[in-house]
Amino acid sequence: MQRTPRTRRAFGNINRRALALAKSVRMLVLDVDGVFTDGGLYFDREGMAMKRFNVQDGLGVKLAQAAGIEVAVITGLNAPAVGFRVKELGIEEYFAGRVKKREALLDICGRKGLELPELAYLGDDWVDLAPMELVGLPMAVGNAVLEVRRKAAWISNAPGGGGAVREAVRFILMAQNRLDDVLKSWS
Question: 156, CA 20 to 30 Å: which among 3, 54, 94, 136?
Answer without folding.
Answer: 94
